[in-house]
Specification:
This protein has a seven-stranded mixed sheet, sandwiched between helices. A five-stranded antiparallel sheet has the order 1-3-4-2-5. 28% of the residues lie in helices and 32% in strands. It is an alpha/beta fold. The longest helix is centred in the middle third of the chain and has 13 residues, at 132-144. The chain starts with a strand and ends with a strand. It has helices spanning 28-37, 59-68, 80-86, 132-144, 162-169, 182-194, 225-228, 232-237, 255-264, and strands spanning 2-4, 15-21, 40-46, 49-55, 74-78, 94-95, 100-103, 116-119, 152-156, 174-179, 201-205, 216-222, 239-251, 268-276, 282-289.
């Protein structure tokens, strides 16, 4: 999971990198949003660490923000000259399955015959396929492929749009992808254009209540529990007869509360997938239906 500033031209005084060790999952989204408001220039998650890149002038403001969320940041200096390329290090193409590959544009190589490919670059939105929660959601979408002819997909909290675009690559006819972050909406449209899918996806910035209560065949969401639960009822209302609902971004400890919350909105968890990250945090993705 990477979030980076669109302008990487800072050269005067270098960057401070505030490093936060896991566990962080239950606090990351809010802390990240406030850190960017406080002047963070980029965010990177790798091997159990979350790294906030900050220009020297904003370093103390961002540190105070992270401390306020009990994230205990430690300092790591990053020369400004290294920033333009450092964010790319370690990012590779991800083979979700023999059918689907997610590749950053700067990573060479093409998908082998029979494997469809999406080109997704890290931008000012989460979701490049590398994080455990995104990977789990992609695995569920791939497991449901080929999606029914004419299938419509709703991507709740789209980030880079990787989930909606993957569903389109795997057979869906159209997708609606939205996020409350305008940077995510922009990233989804840009990635749709790069992949030749712009005419098959509708995007907007806002809440799920702005969508019509039409019958979608697949509803996907990669959100933390605190963000997901308030919208479960609206998601269920937009899942048509026979629809599948993929819920990722959950922790292993969210299993029972999520089962109960699904029952309250008329859904039932049918199966689950889990992944454990480098810090030992268990991530959970459920497949649900009526």
């Amino acid at each position: 999971m990477v979030k980076d500033a669109s302008d990487r031209s800072e050269t005067s005084s270098g960057f401070t990198a505030w490093v936060v060790l896991a566990p962080f999952a239950d606090r990351l989204e809010l802390a990240a949003a406030e850190a960017f408001e406080s002047g963070a220039a980029g965010l990177e998650e790798r091997e159990g660490e979350v790294i906030f890149y900050v220009t020297s002038g904003n370093a103390e403001r961002v540190r105070a923000c992270l401390v306020a969320h009990d994230l205990a940041p430690t300092e790591r200096r990053v020369p400004a000259a290294d920033w333009a390329e450092a964010w790319k290090a370690g990012l590779v193409a991800i083979d979700v399955s023999d059918r689907l590959r997610i590749r950053p544009s700067f990573v060479p190589g093409r998908a082998p015959t029979g494997q469809t490919e999406l080109v997704i670059d890290p931008g000012q939105a989460f979701g490049t396929g590398g994080h455990e929660s995104t990977r789990l959601a992609l695995e569920w979408i791939d497991a449901l492929a080929p999606l029914p002819r004419g299938a419509r997909v709703l991507d709740v909290g789209s980030g880079t749009g990787v989930l909606a675009l993957s569903a389109l690559r795997l057979g869906a006819a159209r997708a609606v992808a939205f996020d409350t972050d305008p940077d995510a909406t922009r990233a989804t449209r840009e990635n749709a254009g790069v992949n030749g899918l712009l005419d098959r996806v509708d995007t907007f910035t806002g809440e799920i209540t702005a969508t019509r209560t039409e019958a979608f065949d697949l509803v996907v969401a990669n959100l933390l529990r605190s963000e997901m639960f308030p919208h479960l009822g609206a998601m269920a209302a937009r899942a048509g007869a026979g629809a599948r609902v993929v819920l990722s971004g959950l922790l292993g400890t969210d299993r029972e509360p999520t089962h109960c919350a699904l029952t309250e909105v008329g859904l039932r968890a049918r199966a689950e997938r889990t992944r454990t990250d480098a810090s030992g945090t268990e991530w959970l993705a459920l497949l649900a239906s009526r």
